[in-house]
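Hi everyone, sorry if this is the wrong subforum. Our group has a chain we'd like a structural model of before ordering constructs, and none of us has done structure prediction before. Sequence below.
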Amino acid sequence: MADWLPIAGTLLGAVVGSTSTLLSQRLAFGRDRAAKLTDLRREAVTRFLSEIHKHQRELYSLHERYPDAATREGAIKRVSPIEAQVALDNVRFLATAEVVAQAESLWLHVRESNFARGNAKSRIRWRRVYWEMRKDLVFSFRASLET
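Answer:
Right subforum, don't worry. Here is the predicted structure as C-alpha cells:
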C-alpha cells in the first residue's frame, strides 16, 4: 500500500495543477473577452457619434446654403444617411439597451425632426437639442462601461 502513496500524491498534484491552470486560463479568457467587447462597443459608439455629427452638420449647412424652402427640401432628401445608419446598427448590435435607446433618439432627432425635413424656423433649438442628446449619449455610454 505504501508503494501507491507516492503515485497517488503525484496524480493528485497533477489534477490540482491542471485544474488551477484551467481555471486561470478561463478567467484570463473571460477578462480578454470582456476587454475586447468593451473595445468594440467604444468603437461602435464613437463611429456613430462621428457619423451622426457629419450628417447633422451637412443638414445644418444645407439650411444655411439654401434659404428657399423648396430647394432646401430637395437638397435634404438627397443627403444619404447610409454611413450613419450602419453606425447606428453597430451600436444596436453591441451596446446596452439604454445606450441603444439614446442613440436611436439622437438618430430620430437628426433625421426625423421638422428641421431635418427642411423647416428652417427651429435651427437654433434643433442644434441645442442635438448637443444635449449627444452629451447624454456619451454619459450613458460611460456609465455602461463602469458596470
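For your construct planning: The mean pLDDT is 86. The first helix runs from residue 4 to 65.
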